Amino acid sequence: MEIDGKKTKPRIVSFTRAELNALKGKTNWKKLRNMTDEEINAAIASDPDAEPLGDLSTFQWHPHPPKN
How many whole angstroms separate alpha carbon 49 and alpha carbon 33? Predict the structure, then answer.
């Protein structure tokens, strides 16, 4: 896989259902659902902590059911 011109190995991360439920985010999902794509892109561009994601057209995400 190549991201921003750098070759990287795919990384597989697994979480149990309990671990996923324990994750506490700061995302205001109601606000996000009401934002346009342009507003989301502008918010990302103005966030100094946001890292460039590179070309996401080759990104592959495959959810797997948790193993309890």
Answer: 21
Looking at residue 50, its amino acid is: A
Question: Bigger pLDDT: 52 or 47?
Answer: 47
CB of 17 within 8 A of CB of 66? yes
- Domain extents in the chain: 2-58
**Which class for 14: exposed (0-12), middle (13-18), buried (19 or more C-beta within 10 A)?**
exposed
- Residue 64's pLDDT band, with cuts at 50, 70 and 90, is low
Which residues make Cβ contacts (< 8 Å) with residue 17, sequence separation at least 6? Answer: 66, 68
Q: How far is CA 64 from the centre of its chain?
A: 16
Cα 20 to Cα 14: distance, rounded to the nearest angstrom: 10
pLDDT of the residue at 59? 65
